[in-house]
Design goal:
- The protein has 151 residues and is an alpha/beta fold.
- It has a seven-stranded mixed β-sheet with strand order 2-1-3-4-5-6-7, sandwiched between helices.
- Helix 3 links the parallel strand 1 and strand 2.
- The chain starts with a helix and ends with a strand.
Length: 151
């Protein structure tokens, strides 16, 4: 029986370490992305989401502006693609870590946006270049505030 105890202890430690593994902290979250069928940076952003634990469904569309209007996005928040995760809208090149944070904190908001297409944001990588940008948390009344900033 004494030989079984170290084996049992090691097995229990393995199970406990799996339970708190960082890879398992975020279960695969379903996100739906609407984008132009020819947009390469949108495709790169989708890959970024998949690499960071999201289960992505992509809808290519020629009428992305109508999706933005239907989602309540203003022109000031607009970028090249629009996504939906849970009850939130995700506009533009928002890093996956910020989407995970949004889902974890669950603030009362409409969603997150990275207006425009800043170089260095996920999907917009160009070597070592990193333009500063802000991820905005916005509500249904058109108000927004910084959620995260990048150099």
């Amino acid at each position: 029986m004494t030989k079984a105890k170290p084996f049992l202890r090691a097995s229990l430690l393995s199970i406990v370490s799996l339970a708190v593994s960082p890879a398992l902290v975020h279960a695969a979250e379903a996100i739906t992305v609407h984008k132009s069928p020819t947009c390469g940076c949108c495709t790169d952003w989708v890959r970024h989401l998949e690499e960071n634990g999201f289960e992505v469904t992509v809808h290519d569309t020629q009428n992305i502006n109508q999706i933005k209007v239907d989602a309540g996005l203003t022109r000031e928040l607009a970028s090249c693609h629009t996504a939906f995760v849970g009850d939130y809208v995700i506009e533009g090149h928002v890093p996956a870590t910020d989407i995970h944070r949004l889902l974890q904190e669950a603030p009362q908001a409409r969603g997150l946006a990275v207006p425009g297409m800043p170089i260095g944001s996920p999907g917009m990588e160009m070597g070592d270049r990193q333009d500063p940008y802000t991820v905005l948390l916005f509500n249904g009344a058109g108000q927004n505030r910084p959620f995260a900033t990048y150099p």
